[in-house]
Design a protein that fits this description.
The protein has 236 residues and is an alpha/beta fold. 30% of the residues lie in helices and 20% in strands. It has helices spanning 6-13, 22-32, 80-88, 97-104, 120-123, 127-130, 148-157, 181-197; strands spanning 40-47, 59-63, 74-77, 93-95, 112-115, 159-163, 169-176, 208-215, 221-223. The longest helix is centred in the C-terminal third of the chain and has 17 residues, at 181-197. The chain is globular, with a radius of gyration of 19 Å. The model has no long low-confidence stretch (mean pLDDT 90). This is Large ribosomal subunit protein uL1. It comes from Gordonibacter faecis.
Amino acid sequence: MTKHGKNYLAAAEKVAETPYTPLAAMQLVKEVASAKFDETVQADFRLGIDTRQADQQLRGTVSLPNGSGKSVRVAVFAEGEAARAAEEAGADIVGTDELMAQIQAGEFNFDAAVATPDQMGKVGRLGKILGPRGLMPNPKLGTVTNDVAKAINELKGGRVEYRADRYGIAHVILGKVSFTAEQLAENYGAVYDEILRMKPAAAKGKYVKSIAVSSTMGPGVPVDSSVNRNYTEAAE
């Protein structure tokens, strides 16, 4: 059993069991955040899916309208014109063989990786290194593409990844405690809509079972999963 400090316990006492509207939940998350750093706000969606089944996987990316508040360093595997386009778009690292050598040596000076399709033959050899870290370029996530500038802009502009774990829970970043409650609620709405849109066809029964939002050091705040519009409006 995890032991929590007095700040966490004091914050938890302020959280009711009855689910909150998205906006009210974000207001409370901000209110009870007590760390001295700008905590990350995350949503946890408990879904009625069995991710052990191939047809019930849930993974993708979503662009947050207000950004994620996180500075994202992007590495790009590209040559020639694509490499130049990547540099102009603000990629932090651009290369091929030299970049691969750095990775094989254990140097990871980036948070996301993009590759042009012609580089995937080489990049594929790094699968065992990049895969477990969630850094492997993937066509489904838009990170294997000839339009590297678009991918870089999206990653740096607030595109976040979501993926349901083995328990059917998708953990998704919504932003920072320093965001306004309205900004966090708008980001939450974008994520909620995306998760509904991507519901696996094979999912049975109730799809969204429960939702909670929390800051890095704070308690979970339950969100009313039936509220799927007007995310930034207060309850009447």
